[in-house]
Structures are given as structure tokens and as C-alpha cells.
Amino acid sequence: MLRDVLTAFRLLTVIPVGRTEGIGASRYFPLVGYFFAGVSLVLAWGAGEAGLSDGLGALLTATVIVSASALLSGLLHWDGLADCADGLGVRGGAERALAAMKASGIGAFGVVAVVLVALLQVTAIAVIVESGSLWALAAAPVLGRLGASFALGLRAPARPDGLGARYAGRVSAAALVLLVVQALPLVAWTGRPEPLLTLGTFGGVLVAFFAPEPFVRRFGGVTGDVLGASILLTETAVLLVGALVGGPL
Fold first, then answer.
1. Is 1 domain-assigned?
2. Is the residue at 5 inside a domain?
3. CA distances from 167 to 22, 159, 180 (A)
């Protein structure tokens, strides 16, 4: 288990945690999400202490939070989002889409996708920070990485090589339960039963489950880029709901 957890951290962050190689790393991706959640919450708390939790201050705080998350992940998730957008935009079959994704440059679809998702995340986080209801800020990284776990554990790889082929594989029912269990602490955010938190958590689990599907259908399977895109799209959906709903979220 420790080998798998360390491998998960090495795959999803820039933190050097040794060279051990675990074959079940995807089962612990949500745990890595709690690390990103902690960073975001600390930054939000520090911004509040510095008086940067409303107006332009909240916008600056949100920009810092998104930037910190991107840098700690080595920008890999954003690169994956751009590549997947380019793959979706190119005409032709799955092979042509995969070729476009492997190209070193970034196309118009990729640029637009990155800009739009970044704007949505920054704006949503600014609203969340100003409201003081930070649940979505903590939940988004966890549920986002749950989406990557679902992608690897429930879909076949699109290529015979690469990260998707290396770690993808059908997981057991017990492993699926373990994945969902890792999201349960989000239900206990306020320390007391909150129907809205329960609904928000399991709604986020459903978003994480379906987020990889459009890419898998288009590309014929999962790739490392699909993982990054699934993480960011799930995060964005959770953040938007948190910004719009407010309250205990």
C-alpha cells in the first residue's frame, strides 16, 4: 500500500518521494487530492488573515491558489486538458486524434480550453473565498483525482504504451468501494450531519465517474492526457457548484 501511495504522489505532483513503483497507484489518487486541498485551504486562510478575502483581494487569492495547484502538479493536468481539447477538435478517427494529442505544439482548441477552464476556476474560487464557505475548495481536488482513478480503473488504455497503458486495469468491487470511501471525509466537513454536503459529495462522485467518458469514446480509451482533463473538469464542476450554491458548501 505504501508503495502505491508514494507512486500516486510521484505521478500527480512534483514532490520527489522516491523511486518505488506500485501497480495499484490509481486506487490512492484521492489521497493526493487531500494534499492539494490542504494547500488551497492554507492559502485561503492566509489570505483571510491578510485581508485578501473580498473584492480584488479574493480574485488575487484565487489566482494564487490555481497557480499553486498547477505548479505542484507540474502543469501536467493543464497540458492534458489542452491535448484532449486538440484531440476532440481534430477531424478524423481515433488514430488521428491521438496523433494530434502527441504533437509537441498546442492548437486553438487547446488554448481556448485552458483559458476558459482557468477563468472558471479563478472566478469560482474567488466567490468561494469571499463567501467563506470553503467546502468546495477542499472537495474539488479530491473529487478531481477520483475522476482520474475512475478513468484508469474502469476504462481500457487507448494506446499500448504511455501512462494509461501502464496503470490502467479493471479494478475489483472492493477497490471501487475503497475509492468512494476516500471521499467520505468530505461529508463530515461541518462535524454534523448536513444533507447538502452529502448530496454535494456524492454528486461530485458521479461527475468524477462520467468526466472521462467523452474522451474515452473519442480516443478509444484512456491516456495520461485524459487523466489530466478529467481532474480539471471535475474540479471545475465542483467549484462552480460550490460558488453558486454557497451555504455549507
1. no
2. no
3. 9, 12, 19
Q: Is residue 23 part of a domain?
A: no
The domain total for the chain is 1
Q: In this structure, what is the dihedral angle of CA atoms 144, 146, 147, 151, given to the nearest 10 degrees? A: 150
- Determine the 3-state secondary structure of 168 from DSSP: coil
Residue 241 host element (H or E): helix 224-245
What range defines the domain where residue 190 resides? 37-245
Terminal-to-terminal C-alpha distance of the chain:
32
Which amino acid belongs to residue 44?
A: A
Asked if 249 and 242 touch (Cβ cutoff 8 Å), the reply is yes
111-33-151 Cα angle (round to 5): 65
Q: CA nearest 222: which of 179, 160, 171? A: 160
Q: Which residue matches cell numbers 493526493? A: 32
Q: Report if residue 236 sits inside a domain.
A: yes
Question: What is this structure's pTM?
Answer: 0.92
pLDDT tens for 37-61 read: 999 999 999 999 999 999 999 999 9
pLDDT digits (tens, 9 = 90+) for 63-85: 999 999 999 999 999 999 999 99
Compute the distance between CA of residue 227 and CA of residue 84 in angstroms, rounded to an integer.
Answer: 10
